[in-house]
């Protein structure tokens, strides 16, 4: 049997990318600055993580012009949402107590009186 950790998504598993995916999984789309401020990382770090997530097919990045200002919108793709859901399920599996009797430690026995 293989330990569930071997099935974790390496792209999502880093703390910053995990945080980005968690945020994007909860909304239809989010503005770059909102994600940056919520996840508390720099513009350049967020850009690098987004590039990795976009290459994996997990996020889309769209730019929209509003007057003179360009807004960058981020969204999780259906593949990204599915990957994030699988990743969470594996983390929950790892965090769950063992389900087989052989893998449990015996309960401590009370003191016996003489």
TrEMBL record:
Pfam families: HTH_34 (PF13601). Residues 93-114 are annotated as: Disordered. Residues 17-94 form the Winged helix DNA-binding domain. It comes from the Bacteria. This is Winged helix DNA-binding domain-containing protein. The lineage of its organism: Bacteria, Bacillati, Actinomycetota, Actinomycetes, Streptosporangiales.
């Amino acid at each position: 049997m293989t330990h569930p950790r071997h099935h974790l998504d390496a792209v999502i598993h880093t703390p910053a990318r995990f945080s980005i995916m968690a945020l994007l999984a909860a909304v239809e789309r989010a503005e770059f600055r909102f994600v940056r401020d919520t996840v508390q990382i720099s513009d350049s770090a967020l850009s690098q993580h987004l590039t990795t997530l976009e290459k994996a097919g997990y996020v889309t990045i769209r730019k929209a012009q509003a007057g003179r200002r360009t807004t960058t919108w981020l969204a999780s793709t259906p593949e990204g949402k599915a990957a994030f859901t699988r990743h969470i399920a594996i983390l929950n599996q790892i965090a769950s107590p063992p389900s087989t009797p052989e893998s449990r430690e015996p309960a401590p026995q009370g003191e016996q009186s003489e």
